[in-house]
Amino acid sequence: MTTHLIDGKQTAEDIKAEIAAEVAALKAAGRKVPHLAAVLVGHDGGSETYVRNKVLACERVGFASTLLRFEDDLSEADLLAQVAALNDDPEIDGFIVQLPLPRHIDPDKVIEAIRPDKDVDGFHPMNMGRMVAGLPALLPATPSGIVELLARQGIATSGKHCVVIGRSNIVGSPVSILLAKNLDTANCTVTLCHSRTQNLAAITRTADIIVAAIGRPEFVTADMVRPGAVVIDVGTTRVPDPSRKNGYVLKGDVDFAGVAPLASRITPVPGGVGPMTIAMLLLNTLRAAKGEVYPK
Ligand code: NAP
């Protein structure tokens, strides 16, 4: 079977070009451009890269951006005070607090403190609940990016059996909910698997679409995939590689070399889901600025 790469990078570029055109029109009309703030606590290598990419992406579409950096000894109370200040700042349309946070800070407390209309990561229980209820919401970026990627790549979802591996609040659970919605871009029969799932390979072999969001490099192997399946690899794990200048190689959750020849379509890592996450974060910020979900 011929493998066709799903080019998330190009699809994300298309979305960013659409956003940039809207921002240019706002500017031309003398209106305020969307403003995203990012809060980064500590010096986690992955988080530094993600936040840098998000800020750069803002600049490229014409958004204003603010990066607030703190050392990892920032207290929970001080972080909550920063969140409150961003909530109250009329200049800021949306903001993210980059996860993971240092162990002494409760991420749920921080997420719940973010005003839902500025919660452009879509993690606040209000946005999660609205998503589940099928109400307009700021949707979590990676799950909505996966749905958008399938739609823009013309991959049929209606009636398909989608097996999601991983049930985190950030990826697995919300993507399983979105893909099961009665929408043109969804309508799958979804099976959600996790570390307690028995006979995982037997289940994944029944999938038309596999979404792997586990965080274990090359976990999904050829024997777990039915020929012709669509494979979406969310995983991004830094595996040490001294031969590389940066000292690591980014690995997905799918054994690409083994699975790609079987799959009808497959996302690469990098260049698949990752760029879509950033594009959807920008889209959420634009929607927040326009008051599309929560009228201003
Ligand atoms: P997470 O919170 O650690 O969740 C991992 C999930 O995988 C859990 O539900 C866990 O099950 C399940 N799991 C672990 N071992 C398993 C096994 N042997 N069999 C079946 N399921 C297993 O991770 P996450 O935040 O969802 O992230 C997953 C991956 O996606 C990571 O590599 C992360 O870096 C990446 N990611 C990428 C993007 C992007 O933009 N590309 C965005 C977010 C995350 P239990 O619930 O039973 O423990």
CATH topological fold name of the largest domain: Rossmann fold
Order of helices and strands: EHEHEHEHHHEHEHEEEEHEH
Counting DSSP E segments of at least 2 residues, the number of strands comes to: 11
CATH architectural grouping of the largest domain: 3-Layer(aba) Sandwich
Estimate the strand proportion.
15-25%
CA-to-CA gap between the ends? 51 Å
What is this structure, in a nutshell?
The protein is built from 10 helices and 11 strands. The chain is an alpha/beta fold and 296 residues long. Helix 1 runs parallel beside helix 10 (273-290).
Describe the structure.
The protein has a six-stranded parallel sheet with strand order 1-11-8-7-5-6. The chain folds into two domains: 31-119, Leucine Dehydrogenase, chain A, domain 1 (Rossmann fold); 141-275, NAD(P)-binding Rossmann-like Domain (Rossmann fold, 3-Layer(aba) Sandwich). Helix 6 packs across helix 7. With 296 residues, it is an alpha/beta fold. It contains ten helices and eleven strands. The chain has helices at 8-28, 45-61, 76-88, 107-113, 125-133, 141-152, 172-179, 200-204, 256-259, 273-290; strands at residues 4-5, 35-41, 64-70, 94-97, 161-165, 189-193, 209-212, 230-233, 237-240, 248-251, 265-266. The longest helix has 21 residues, at 8-28. Helix 2 links the parallel strand 2 (35-41) and strand 3 (64-70). The structure holds NADP nicotinamide-adenine-dinucleotide phosphate. The site of NADP nicotinamide-adenine-dinucleotide phosphate has 25 residues, from helix 10.
